[in-house]
């Protein structure tokens, strides 16, 4: 349990560490009132350190349907449904990733009626209500509350819930037996009688970082028996039903425009998902966390404050003190040691001297050009390899030999796939060298697939740590 708590605490600090950048001005100089310990910077909580947008504007339109009333929009007696229209505009503020507030203005017109068809005369009542409303809505992002944190794919759908109160102004008109419509009720806003409530749900789709599409269904409780146009609550029309509130559904489709200078709105940010993704990154060892106050000049993953070897060669593995590993303690670091586990003299590349010449000629491996490694299932040249490849250009151009450029993979995957992957890696290196001045006829790309492991004990890959499997994903040179 203690280990899990410590791991989550470290992951929570990762967004700060990943956003830190080198600067000639120390953090304590820039923020004198903050505390700094070791190489970690503690940033103050203010507007300058915010990483998400939290304001947006929403607009939309739809169809209101009066159903809980004496006069209704659907099933009103004559078999004909009548539809009104509605629109809304809101200013939205996200308080957290799961809760926000909306200041919303609604405008629309409902249409409703009642027709007595028993005598087939078609006589009845037709009404319409023009309304304006201002309300405050709470916005709950259920997706950020309930989403599974082990789903690593970026999500584009979000379920929201809304509820709030406001003030409603309306004019209700009524026509009887096909006659002219007359104004029956007029309610002004910001009075006790004009108070209303509404609640509902919305489904959002993230079109882009700046734009969302949302379908919304709201239920509006007017608290007023005269909203449907029936006139006085004791009139003949309003005596048809016992309810004393004319309520309606409002189905809308709208757009949300997210404001601000940042890439992401906080309502589309899931902190737990972010924490677990950072833990996955650490487990895969695919990213360097930059937390060094005074930098890491040799880029070996050990801050200069504690690094005992500040000029570690690129690609060399180091211990906790930043010293390049020499497993067999023969004076040749593992990066250049052709026999990593067997001691040998420096002049023989760390391998023991053979008393007899080998039965068959052995091709010379160019050791100072090793360490060209690749990410999993990739043939892309890494930035960390470019120093080695630039040295290779000088070495090959100063040599009289031609060279085989040999690509290899780790043991994961099928033999045919890895064969093609190793050929792509070899060709990537050849293309880089030719582009930088080596004649193409001096290089020959060869792929050996998964049959040329630097560490044969890594078959299957689960038997070895990540750094050994990465060392198997490589390209090296042999002089012809």
Automatic annotation (TrEMBL):
One of its GO terms (cellular component) is cell outer membrane. It comes from the Bacteria. Residues 1-20 form the signal peptide. SUPFAM superfamilies: OmpA-like, TSP type-3 repeat. It holds the Pfam family OmpA. It is found in: Cell outer membrane. InterPro entries: Bact_OuterMem_StrucFunc, OMP_bac, OmpA-like, OMPA-like_CS, OmpA-like_sf, TSP_type-3_rpt. Residues 361-480 form the OmpA-like domain. The keyword Iron does not apply. Keywords: Cell outer membrane, Membrane, Signal. GO terms for molecular function: calcium ion binding. PANTHER family: LIPOPROTEIN YIAD-RELATED, STATOR ELEMENT OF FLAGELLAR MOTOR COMPLEX. This is OmpA-OmpF porin, OOP family.
């Amino acid at each position: 349990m203690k280990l899990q708590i410590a791991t989550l605490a470290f992951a929570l600090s990762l967004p700060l560490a990943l956003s830190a950048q080198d600067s000639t001005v120390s953090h304590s100089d820039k923020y004198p009132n903050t505390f700094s310990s070791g190489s970690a910077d503690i940033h103050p909580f203010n507007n300058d350190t915010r990483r998400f947008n939290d304001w947006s504007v929403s607009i939309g339109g739809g169809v209101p349907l009066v159903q809980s009333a004496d006069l209704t929009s659907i099933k009103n007696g004559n078999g004909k449904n009548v539809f009104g229209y509605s629109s809304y505009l809101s200013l939205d503020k996200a308080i957290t990733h799961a809760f926000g507030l909306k200041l919303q203005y609604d405008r629309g017109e409902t249409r409703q009626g009642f027709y007595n068809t028993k005598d087939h005369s078609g006589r009845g009542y037709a009404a319409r209500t023009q309304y304006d409303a201002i309300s405050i809505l709470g916005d709950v992002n259920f997706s950020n509350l309930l989403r599974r944190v082990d789903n690593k794919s970026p999500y584009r759908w979000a379920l929201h819930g809304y509820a709030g109160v406001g003030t409603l102004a309306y004019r209700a008109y009524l026509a009887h037996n096909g006659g002219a419509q007359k104004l029956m009720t007029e309610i002004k806003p910001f009075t006790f009688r004009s108070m209303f409530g509404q609640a509902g749900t919305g489904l959002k789709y993230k079109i882009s970082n700046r734009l969302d599409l949302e379908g919304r269904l709201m239920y509006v409780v007017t608290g007023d028996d005269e909203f449907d146009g029936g006139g006085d609550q004791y009139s003949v029309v309003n005596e048809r039903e016992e309810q004393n509130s004319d309520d309606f559904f409002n189905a809308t489709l709208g757009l949300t425009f997210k404001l601000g200078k940042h890439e992401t709105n906080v309502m589309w940010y899931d902190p737990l998902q972010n924490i677990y993704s950072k833990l996955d990154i650490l487990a895969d060892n695919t990213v360097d966390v930059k937390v060094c106050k005074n930098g890491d000049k040799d880029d070996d993953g050990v801050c200069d404050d504690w690094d005992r070897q500040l000029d570690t060669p690129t690609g060399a593995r180091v211990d906790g003190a930043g010293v390049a590993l020499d497993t067999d303690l023969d004076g040749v670091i593992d990066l250049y040691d052709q026999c990593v586990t067997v001691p040998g003299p420096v002049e023989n590349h760390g391998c023991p001297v053979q008393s007899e010449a080998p039965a068959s000629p052995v091709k010379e491996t160019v050791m100072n050009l090793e360490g060209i490694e690749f990410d999993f299932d990739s043939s892309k040249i890494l930035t960390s390899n470019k120093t080695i490849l630039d040295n290779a250009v000088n070495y090959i151009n100063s040599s009289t030999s031609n060279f085989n450029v040999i690509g290899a993979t780790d043991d994961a995957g099928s033999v045919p796939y890895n064969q093609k992957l190793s050929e792509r890696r070899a060709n990537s290196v050849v293309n880089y060298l030719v582009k930088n001045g080596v004649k193409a006829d001096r290089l020959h790309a060869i792929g050996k697939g998964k049959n040329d492991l630097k560490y044969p004990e890594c078959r299957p890959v689960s038997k070895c740590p990540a750094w050994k499997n990465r060392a198997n994903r490589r390209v090296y040179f042999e002089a012809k």
